[in-house]
Amino acid sequence: MMEFERCMAMAERLILEQRVDEGMRLLTELLYDEPGSAALHNELGWGYLYFVGNPAQAELHLEAAIRFEPAFAPPYLHLGNLHSQAGRYSLALDWFARGLRRAGANRGALAAGMGWAHEMRGEYRLAIRRYKESLAVSAGPEYESLRESIRRCRGKRWILMLDTAVSYRRSV
To answer: Engineering a disulfide at 57: which of 7, 48, 83, 137 sits with its beta carbon 3.0 to 4.6 angstroms away?
Structure first.
């Protein structure tokens, strides 16, 4: 394994071990050696988004990763999650959809992200469809969570239909 890759793996391990400052410092130092590395910018964006809580820096690095290597799939998922967390669901859906068009994309995570964004927009049928797509390619612990998401959306659709029927009856 090359020194650069070894250092990136070490930085990720440090971050996951809750030694976030050390891991992020190591990733930042690597920028001096590899400023055009899409993988490095993606890793920095991942760290800033999920562990540091700095979405502006995350967005900067994730977009840089895409500029340096548009075919690299991971930053699309993270940008979708970033916009979803901020309540910008249309942008989130756009980034998730772009990610689905990339080779090697995590189709399950992208479809689940789209499901969440559709659910938050009140588009329950679309959300259920995306959760089912994610479920079809999932084989891990997320399986039950996805099934629960489908049940939740079905319940929301049912409540919405009942509210609409009650409102209609009152207006007649």
So the answer is: 48
